[in-house]
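User: Thyroglobulin type-1 domain-containing protein. Structure?
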Amino acid sequence: MFPTGPSPCEEERWAATEAHSVYIPSCEPGGAFTTRQCQQGGQCWCVDHTGQELPGTRHPAGGAVSCKISIYTIHTKHFTTSHDCKMIVPHPVH
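Assistant: Predicted structure:
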């Protein structure tokens, strides 16, 4: 059975838009969080599939950090060394 209604990303995006927030989540067409989130005119950071910021990935909006590499590193380490993603700190590519 397929889920109905807005995804968590879409719900957060709607709430942030209604509140005129500086940060409005970016969602994929299917409703998932995009891996790179940015504030309007501010910083960008990488997030996991739940929209939680990955430690050590925050950078200026013009920075060249690859969130796909950061997330791959976390998932690789997660499945091979730990069951707690919060314990793993990604190494952003500069």
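The longest helix spans residues 67-81. Residues 49 and 81 are 19 Å apart (CA to CA).
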